[in-house]
């Protein structure tokens, strides 16, 4: 597996800075809200932030691929692909909640070699680099050592993201945990990398929702896959389970898969 070079990290910082400069201009201001085909809201801020990110990539790594939420796909057969979500948690953004972030993942082949979760309002930047560990604002972080569902703290963004059968599976799992919480969008994945949340289980996600966080969680010692335990990639089905330890991950997957 190729490790990210300092240049990649420098570019990722530049992307996050550029996105924040755009998105913070619009945060807690009146916005024109458009409903996309998947019924998620998109704002002027999303589009302006991703445009700024793409301009940096065009100037610095023009041959790289891009998988972005707002402006589509480019060169997905490239050796390296940048996966961008300028504002993850648009509903949080438009309702004035600070728990939205910018997600950046760098795919080298099928591996995430760098992941970033940037939280502009909180002024926290979570980074994971393959083989180099994870940090929050430059300080090392690590997933908790939780190995038992009964002791786990679990989070998901909202019950509304689940189809009925998937909700039944999540409800079955989460009621066996020590604590369950809702909300937070991408911040739940950062919390898992930082050791204060032990499980994140979601459905209906896109690659730009999970590949950036995957890079942070794996570098922090956690595990993140689809519900069948398969590695996440551009073609995953959008059902994601992240856990602090392999043992917890196996237990949680078994409960999700159990027949009602």
From TrEMBL:
<dbReference type="GO" id="GO:0046872">
    <property type="term" value="F:metal ion binding"/>
</dbReference>
<dbReference type="GO" id="GO:0000105">
    <property type="term" value="P:L-histidine biosynthetic process"/>
</dbReference>
<keyword id="KW-0028">Amino-acid biosynthesis</keyword>
<feature type="binding site">
    <location>
        <position position="88"/>
    </location>
    <ligand>
        <name>Mg(2+)</name>
    </ligand>
</feature>
<dbReference type="InterPro" id="IPR020583">
    <property type="entry name" value="Inositol_monoP_metal-BS"/>
</dbReference>
<keyword id="KW-0479">Metal-binding</keyword>
<comment type="pathway">
    <text>Amino-acid biosynthesis; L-histidine biosynthesis; L-histidine from 5-phospho-alpha-D-ribose 1-diphosphate: step 8/9.</text>
</comment>
<dbReference type="InterPro" id="IPR000760">
    <property type="entry name" value="Inositol_monophosphatase-like"/>
</dbReference>
<keyword id="KW-0368">Histidine biosynthesis</keyword>
<keyword id="KW-0378">Hydrolase</keyword>
<dbReference type="GO" id="GO:0004401">
    <property type="term" value="F:histidinol-phosphatase activity"/>
</dbReference>
<feature type="binding site">
    <location>
        <position position="69"/>
    </location>
    <ligand>
        <name>Mg(2+)</name>
    </ligand>
</feature>
<dbReference type="InterPro" id="IPR051090">
    <property type="entry name" value="Inositol_monoP_superfamily"/>
</dbReference>
<feature type="binding site">
    <location>
        <position position="209"/>
    </location>
    <ligand>
        <name>Mg(2+)</name>
    </ligand>
</feature>
<protein>
    <recommendedName>
        <fullName>Histidinol-phosphatase</fullName>
        <ecNumber>3.1.3.15</ecNumber>
    </recommendedName>
</protein>
<dbReference type="Pfam" id="PF00459">
    <property type="entry name" value="Inositol_P"/>
</dbReference>
<dbReference type="InterPro" id="IPR011809">
    <property type="entry name" value="His_9_proposed"/>
</dbReference>
<feature type="binding site">
    <location>
        <position position="85"/>
    </location>
    <ligand>
        <name>Mg(2+)</name>
    </ligand>
</feature>
<keyword id="KW-0460">Magnesium</keyword>
<comment type="similarity">
    <text>Belongs to the inositol monophosphatase superfamily.</text>
</comment>
<feature type="binding site">
    <location>
        <position position="87"/>
    </location>
    <ligand>
        <name>Mg(2+)</name>
    </ligand>
</feature>
